[in-house]
Specification:
This protein is mainly β. It is built from no helices and 24 strands. It is globular, with a radius of gyration of 19 Å.
Length: 267
């Protein structure tokens, strides 16, 4: 489901013309300046915000996400007590004005900014990732105090185990050599091995996690920039593309319209 603005709980504001439910994976990625508002007790499985000029504002309602709130770009302001499984910030600004606004799960900072708009203690576990740059800040005249005992730095890891499957090949770093795309069939994570012959010369698990309801279908250079793009399809039938530069996600989003759950993308 994709939205281009308006109130979260209004069916007409979503691509499926229906109000989101707990098992829905939502994406806000339409281009332009617009506002998504939360004014009721709204719910979904996951929410990805990837709209650089857009904003999400929590007015008087609350948000219940079983899975992950993923902020890739844009501005989000959460001010009520919410139920959120986990938070991942790779870009944009995530502002909060309530100790419980980010739920009880881990907040993973892989870029972007976490901004306190009130005097608050961040009760969530906080994780930082190597090779990324994040900002933790408080608005003018305000103070944020993280729980120091729950702050960690993650390490870059290589894939291992039977859950990882090779999906296909593509030249993600534009060096003239094919690279290998893997996906974890349990978590949905994707990883890229940059290759030279049979030697792994680089790559890593991609920081942004699409979630378990998305399957990588294949690759192609959809935007003609010389770098392979990853094609995904959701269990709902929704297709999406990730524009890559090496292992970094640099663009893309949901493809409109949604063909429906009866259609399968073929690489």
């Amino acid at each position: 489901m994709n939205s281009a603005g308006g109130d979260f709980g209004v069916a007409a504001n979503w691509s499926t013309d229906s109000v989101p439910f707990l098992n829905d994976d939502l994406t806000v990625s339409a281009f332009g300046q617009y506002l998504v508002t939360i004014s009721d007790h709204d719910q979904a499985n996951s929410l990805t915000f990837n709209a650089p000029q857009a904003a999400l504002q929590e007015n008087a309602g609350s948000l219940a996400l079983t899975g992950t709130l993923l902020v890739n770009s844009g501005f989000l302001s959460l001010n009520e007590v919410n139920r959120i499984g986990a938070v991942r910030v790779t870009g944009g600004v995530l502002a909060f004005g309530n100790t419980g606004a980010l739920g009880a799960g881990t907040v993973s900072m892989l870029g972007g900014e976490l901004l306190a708009t009130a005097n608050e203690t961040l009760s969530n576990a906080l994780s930082f990732y190597p090779g990324t740059s994040s900002t933790i800040a408080a608005a003018h005249g305000k103070m944020m105090k993280p729980r120091r005992t729950s702050t960690s730095v993650a390490v870059q890891r290589w894939i291992s185990g039977t859950a990882w499957k090779a999906i296909g090949t593509g030249d993600f770093n534009d060096d003239g050599h094919s690279d290998i795309l893997f996906q974890n069939m349990t978590s949905g994570e994707v990883s890229i091995w940059e290759m030279n012959g049979n030697n792994v010369t680089g790559g890593r698990t991609v920081i942004t996690d699409p979630g378990s309801s998305w399957r990588a279908v294949g690759t192609g250079d959809f935007n003609g920039d010389g770098h392979s793009v990853i094609l995904f399809q959701n269990t709902s039938g929704q297709a999406a593309v990730w524009e890559m530069n090496g292992t970094s996600l640099v663009g893309g989003g949901a493809v409109s319209p949604n063909p429906g759950s009866g259609w399968r993308a073929v690489a």
